[in-house]
Amino acid sequence: MSAKKQLTMNEVLDQGKRIAFHEREDGSTDDFLEADGLIFDIMTNRDGYISGMWCMGKKARVAREYGIKLD
């Protein structure tokens, strides 16, 4: 049995499909991408530099937990 390879940030940015985008008053953003059945939150600061990324979890669970309607 082989384990799935963990996606790198570059793979998520290249392969990910944008499902949502949120901009705050201070100019920082959250870009939500779906890649390989998982939802990722790419955070940028007000200068446009990526400040972090985290995997929110499987697409179906995230949709159920946060009440998001995904196609």
Structure description:
By secondary structure, the protein is of the alpha+beta class. 21% of the residues lie in helices and 42% in strands. It has helices spanning 9-15, 59-66; strands at residues 17-23, 29-35, 38-44, 50-58. The protein has a four-stranded antiparallel sheet with strand order 1-2-3-4. The termini are far apart.
Report strand order across the widest sheet: 1-2-3-4
Topology pattern, helix = H, strand = E: HEEEEH
* Number of E strands: 4
Summed over residues and divided by their number, the pLDDT gives a mean of: 89
Helix content: 10-25%
Structural class: alpha+beta
| Alpha-carbon Rg, integer | 13 Å
Summary, kept brief:
The chain contains 2 helices and 4 strands.
What are the main properties of this structure?
4 strands; four-stranded antiparallel β-sheet; 71 residues; single chain; alpha+beta; 2 helices
Write the layout of secondary structure elements.
Layout: H1 9-15, E1 17-23, E2 29-35, E3 38-44, E4 50-58, H2 59-66
Antiparallel strand pairs: 1-2, 2-3, 3-4
